[in-house]
Fold each of these.
Amino acid sequence: MNKVILMGRLTRDPEVRYTQTNNTLVASFSLAVNRRFAKQGEERQADFINIVAWNKTGEFCSKYFKKGQQVGVVGRIQTRNWEDDQGQKHYVTEVIAEEAYFADSKRDGDTSNFENTFGSNVSENSEFTTSSDDELPF
């Protein structure tokens, strides 16, 4: 099984490009993911992990993710290699995002473009909405 779950901060805004063959959107960005423990007397270290998001996931990331924002990504690890014009081989390991989420807590007075655009529509169309007359099972 190849499954990765990460939470970290974007080190830069997502970079968008389109494939030459069928004009598919691809968004790339890097996450700074803190290591779980720090050695005594040292600062906590972070790993910088390259993320690639395709199609709708890539569109979502490019539209709503910004540098410094904390996000969650679920995906898979993929490796690839290529040879450049000088004959030098290059290897890269990256995470292909299958799902992407906001992980920042909402700050007072802070409204994101996502909430302004989709906030009311998401709850209205959700099958889990309740009215004040509904009884909650817990």
Amino acid sequence: MRPNLKTMLERSTNNTQRFLPWACLLFFGLFFTTSAHAQDPRFAQFYANPLQLNPAMIGVFEGQMRFTANYRDLYSSVLANKPYRTLTAGLEFKSPVGRSDFASFAISTLRDRAGTSNFQRTRLTLGGSYMKQLDDNRRGNGGQYLVIGAQIGAGQRSYNWEDLWFTEQFNEGTASVDYTADNGEAFDKASTNIFMDFNAGLLWYALFDDNNSIYVGGSMHHLNKPSISLLDNPMEKLPTRYVVHAGGELPFNDNLSILPAVAFQSQGTAMSTTFGGNFRYRNRDWKELAIRAGMWGHVANKLEQGFGIDAVIFTTILEMERWNFGISYDVTTSILSVANNSRGAFELSLIYVHPPQSRKYRVNCPNF
């Protein structure tokens, strides 16, 4: 199914250095296209994308309603109008249960498009969580909470076969591709069947004082391992994705603090870890205004063996009362930097939290 590059490379021996970066990128793109169907998209600002990280993050905010949106653009510096683009959005509502507990509900969606084949992933999920207070410190700034959450949804995957070329379409005489020729492949459909999806997660957090907290969570995505085959192959399953994440906030003084965090993810044969922290400075005014800036590293397992840092991420976040605006940029540090000149991914995040209308909706939550 992969394009035949052998003849093209043989005819380009005098231009090896000029074509090498593009050949590397093409190989990466082909590998990603053939394996991305079994792996979920990754976000650098994982802490600003709670509904894709852990279902137990549903309702963990100091308000009555929260809206989140995230956009990631990967390798547009070399793939022009065919980069890897991912867009997510979510809406959450929280309701008090009894004296100090909360039940929350959420709806979220994801749309991802990758590479030349226009490989697309779409997913819609409904979720809920229950937040249980573990102590009686509701009136103070502290407290411990345990949250359990789950999601059920539906998804689908699709390709555009007409945008790809195959060995049978390569003309060795002209060293070009004849897109009108028969590709020799028996593709009977361009999309998978709609499949059901189940996720579950757990989160514990503790607040010790204002801007002083810690949290630990874990989640499992695609628990039912749905079939995602385009060829009616029941053995092609979506592997379960395991997530472990932790973080907190450590104050230096009344205005300055640091928010370190780490997220480990494993799915099939792929493993990755994003770690780092953001410094946060706030003005402590009646109209809360804060700015964050930080640096993160992303470590992933290599194709052959071992692990390596494939990106360094720089982030900036602006907090304005109910709104959070985040922007980050991935600087590629792996061998792929030869092809993209270290220009990796561009990512945006938006969070809006509607304040509680009464005291019964108020709950202490950490900053993420």
